[in-house]
Specification:
14 helices, rod-shaped, four-stranded antiparallel β-sheet, 2 domains, 6% strand, 4 strands, Alpha-Beta Plaits, alpha+beta
């Protein structure tokens, strides 16, 4: 498994890229200044130099974004923009000697292709861990040899149309990859980046089919349009990063809410029987009493105790006692309504909060005792195991619910003695 690049290594690589591009920009500026000193009246700003400097500035801004948001796809963006800037500056500079100028133009076309491929990689790096292999660089080696050497023998015509066509294909692939991100993650920024890269691909294809070489007319007609597309692409990348952060924040909040819900279930649920515990009773009893007062809903308590439970533990062991508690809890859950509450009060005692009058609660208790005696749970237990139940109604004016629980507990003991 490949490791993500560390921040220090990334910054070193970015510094080297910017140093290289800056050297090219400085050399281009020196040539421009030298030309101005010779013929100031005839000198105009080279649009390719302007485009190269602008793309380097965009790369610098994205590198600051990477410092804040350490993601591999942002690093790929930075590398792509630096390569575009270096490509434009190489194409704009006049080197001493025709051979060096021709080779530099071929290399600039190669860098434009590599930058487009880097944008393809950036879309894949957003969805999964970036995996680069040695054979990927071996594929680029023949392209580098062709674009670096063929202009020396055949001129710029040998690399002009092929370079723009290959770059158009790579940009189209990058645009489709980012539009797939729109489908998978609903990122508006990915839609902007994908659409602009498709337009850049169309621009490169049109340039390759409309001109035979890097003429002044071809440069002037396409460079400013391409710059506009690239600037909108940069805005889309900024938006995409912001959406990525907000999406991760929403996902983190959702996970936190889920974890809080699970933790609340753990602290309010009895682990052995799955019933609610006394902590949950203390949480909801105030709300239930308030609902009783507001809507005049009767409320009663049934205090349930397992007869001779200590004898079960002493005779068959605590594991058998735990199984008895689980079976009784399952039985009680099946025989009460979903709107009622079942609590494990402690030991072998259960508490049922039911919406009815005390007379109905007493009748319900008798039904539970008869049903348990005839249930499959009781069939697997000793004959002397049963349920004792005490009932008490909660008056609307109840100030201390524990006093009502105590009354139900005392009535349960009276039932046990009978």
């Amino acid at each position: 498994m490949t490791r993500a690049p560390t921040g220090r290594a990334v910054l070193v690589c970015a510094a080297l890229l910017f140093a290289t591009a800056g050297t090219v920009a400085l050399a281009a500026w020196q040539d421009s200044a030298r030309a101005q000193s010779i013929a100031p009246a005839l000198t105009v700003i080279d649009v390719r130099t302007l485009a190269g400097v602008a793309t380097l500035l965009v790369g610098a801004l994205l590198s600051l974004l990477y410092v804040y948001r350490r993601r591999v796809y942002i690093l790929c963006w930075v590398a792509g923009w630096v390569l575009i800037g270096a490509s434009r500056l190489l194409a704009a500079r006049e080197f001493p000697g025709e051979a060096a100028t021709l080779a530099a133009y071929g290399v600039s076309q190669f860098l434009a292709i590599v930058s487009a491929l880097v944008f393809v990689v950036s879309a894949d790096a957003y969805r999964a861990r970036l995996r680069l292999r040695r054979n990927h660089t071996l594929v680029l080696l023949p392209l580098l040899i062709w674009f670096g050497l063929s202009p020396l023998a055949l001129g710029t015509v040998a690399v002009f149309a092929p370079g723009h066509l290959v770059a158009a294909g790579a940009l189209a692939a990058a645009g489709v990859a980012h539009l797939r991100l729109l489908r998978d993650s609903r990122l508006v920024g990915a839609a902007v980046v994908g659409a602009m890269m498709l337009l850049l691909a169309a621009s490169n294809a049109w340039l390759a089919m409309s001109f035979e070489g890097p003429s002044t007319a071809a440069v002037e007609q396409t460079t400013f349009v391409s710059m506009a597309f690239y600037l909108v692409t940069a805005l889309g990348m900024q938006l995409m990063t912001f959406e990525d952060m907000t999406y991760e924040l929403r996902l983190t909040n959702k996970r936190l809410e889920s974890a809080q819900g699970e933790l609340r279930e753990l602290v309010t649920t009895d682990s052995l029987t799955g019933c609610r515990n006394r902590r949950f009773f203390n949480e909801i009893i105030g709300r239930e009493i308030e609902r009783q007062r507001r809507y005049d809903i009767p409320l009663s308590l049934l205090f349930v105790d397992i007869d001779r439970f200590k004898a079960i533990n002493d005779t068959f062991g605590h594991e058998a006692g735990d199984r008895v508690l689980q079976r009784v809890a399952d039985f009680l859950r099946r025989h009460i309504r979903e709107v009622d509450y079942l609590f494990r009060w402690g030991g072998d005692e259960f508490l049922i909060l039911i919406s009815c009058r005390e007379e109905e609660a007493v009748h319900k208790g008798l039904e539970l005792q008869r049903a348990f005696a005839q249930s499959s749970e009781a069939a697997s237990l000793p004959a002397w195991v049963g349920l004792s139940i005490g009932c008490a109604e909660v008056p609307p004016s109840a100030a201390d619910i524990m006093q009502i629980v105590k009354v139900a507990d005392e009535r349960m003991y009276l039932d046990k003695r009978r």
